[in-house]
Every structure is written in C-alpha cells, then in structure tokens.
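Why does residue order matter? Because the sequence determines the fold. Keep that principle in mind as you read this record.
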Amino acid sequence: MDQHQVTLIVAVIALAILVAVVGFLFIRKRRSQMLRERFGPEYDRVVKKEGGVHPGEDVLQFRAKRREKLQIRSLSSSSRSDFANRWTAVQAQFVDDPKNAVVGADQLVSEVMKVRGYPVGDFEQRVADISVDHPVVVENYRAAHDITLRHNRRQASTEDLRKAMVHYRLLFDELLEDSLPERKEARG
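Structure:
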C-alpha cells in the first residue's frame, strides 16, 4: 500500500466519523427541540432538577413512553357536565369553608384524572403523567398540592387557599376538555 492509498483510507474513515458525529448531533438537537415543544415549561424544570440536558431529557422521554401505554379517554358529555356542576359546588363552598373547599377541589381533580384514565396513586407519578398532556398547567397542580399540604399542617392562610383553588381550577378546566391537546411526539 502506498502513501496515497493510506491517506485516502484515513480520509474516508475521518469523513465517516465526521458524518456520524454530525448525524448524532442533529438527532440529539431534533430530540431536544421536540421535547421542548411537547413539554414547554416542564422541560426547563426537569432539566434543572435532573442536573443537565441529557438526564432531564431521558426523564421526559421515559414519561412520554409511559404515557403512550395509558388509555386516556375523553369524558362523556354527561360526565363533563356532572364534574362541572360539582366544581361549581366546591367553588361556592369556598366562601363559607375555604379549607374543605380546597380538599374537595383536590379530590375532584383526582377523580377527573381517574375517570380520564390517569393512574392516581402517588402524587409525583400523577404529576409526571399529567405533564405529558398538560405541561403548561402541571406547575399549577404542584403549587395547589403544596398549599394543600401546608393547609394540612395548619400553615396556609385563606389567601393561600384561594390561590390553591385557582391552581386547581386551571388543571380541572384542561382535564374537562373534550380531547387531549395536540402534541408532537418526542422520539429519540
């Protein structure tokens, strides 16, 4: 083998490595873009919590794959109407009994989630599952839950309880909608 052939082989190998690296980086960038679009503000929160883009994206990818296995369904019009009426009652209860109204709102949100097909066991798992379909309001759910926990420890003011009701209402309204928000699938 002469010097020219060796140089050509090295150049072909270097080009193949370069194409592979550029392809890998393109796929990673595309995956990041799709996850950002799908998870919105939840993307930044998870990346920060997990300590970096790659571990954060792995968590979000896992959530998306878990969500695909769930049988999430729309509510019937009669169920939607029943839940809306029950929400109105819980909201009206707030005037006379804010503490129990917040507890009722939390229970009602959990019930809607269950009827829609979301698992409702562990709170953190509920949040992870909801974040796939409702990434914008999931932070409201966290905030409302935090206030509910503080209320249980007798550390929440009436104003805090009012904020919890607003947070629960935002998620509740999204859960009542006919269908799931259009989401681009994150693949990777």
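Residues 1-188 form one domain.
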